[in-house]
């Protein structure tokens, strides 16, 4: 079957091959035919080594498709079911799951260390235990979440990661209050979803901050009340908050420098929500006096900071009601053969989300 593979960490191009095999099928597993997948910035971070991932690997973790086979013991799914892929399934039994913090379950991370593809040259991993840049993938049954018939595959794929992450940061983690002021630093697909989450929550001012003009323009279409470049952010803070700072600032880049900017533009007693996934050697620093004196809440948000299954259902309900725009997030479409064009579009900031039709 066809798949796009990264042979070594640090390479910037993927190799589209036709001799890949999805392996590992057996009890508790399902085999899926991938129909659509989104390109998320985390895929680029794994390719560059910012996020840890064994190589060679098939990128992609934001996918949807149909079940083509189920292993022994799988009773929740059947052949032909339409599903989205959850790259971080909850085991339901660990301490995090028992506390209701299923997004912190580590069981899914264990899948990342087990190869789930194979070629003549040896084993190949799937990013985050999935690897959706392939025609087929074998995953644990808990990774395959049924979707209603009216949800297109390309929409379901986005809900599988970026939409859930961004909406959840505003709704679950920060719990944005109606009438509040919000700033979102980084307006790709996840940042735009954060803006939509803040709008759903009733924020009065939503300032989008991004160096790319096309992304700033897009942010205004999705609910931002103002969009500025990083150089204009300080002026926006002065005009909108009289210099006090925003009630909520979301960092959706994954870098300590932008996290520090976010902290400095959060009002005393306000909330800094860190959504971007960064490198292990990139340290965010605050001094002990400002940490105490300013009483700013620093809240990381992992996969939307809540139960992902409930978050999927909420995203679908909001989409059906016209409260959020998911179709508009897809600015580019390519076939698998054009995957490297999609990578360039994301690196340049041209694309919010590219739908890869497998």
Task: Please specify the SSE layout and strand pairing.
Blueprint (H helix, E strand, L loop, with lengths): L2 E3 L9 E3 L3 E2 L6 E10 L2 H8 L8 E2 L3 E9 L11 E4 L9 H4 L8 H5 L5 E3 L2 E5 L9 E5 L3 E3 L6 H7 L2 H12 L7 E5 L3 H13 L3 E5 L3 H9 L4 E3 L4 H9 L4 E6 L4 H9 L1 E9 L13 H7 L2 E4 L7 H13 L9 E6 L3 H10 L4 E5 L1
Quickly list its features.
358 residues, 12 helices, single chain, alpha/beta, globular, 7-stranded mixed β-sheet, 30% helix, 6-stranded parallel β-sheet, 19 strands
Using the alpha-carbon principal axes, give the shape: globular
Largest sheet: 7 strands, mixed
Beta-strand residue percentage: 25-35%
Q: Helical element count?
A: 12
* Uncertain runs: none
Mean pLDDT: 96
Number of DSSP strand runs: 19
Radius of gyration: 20 Å
Going by helix content, strand content and strand pairing, the class is: alpha/beta
**Cα-to-Cα separation, first versus last residue:** 11 Å
Helical content band: 25-40%
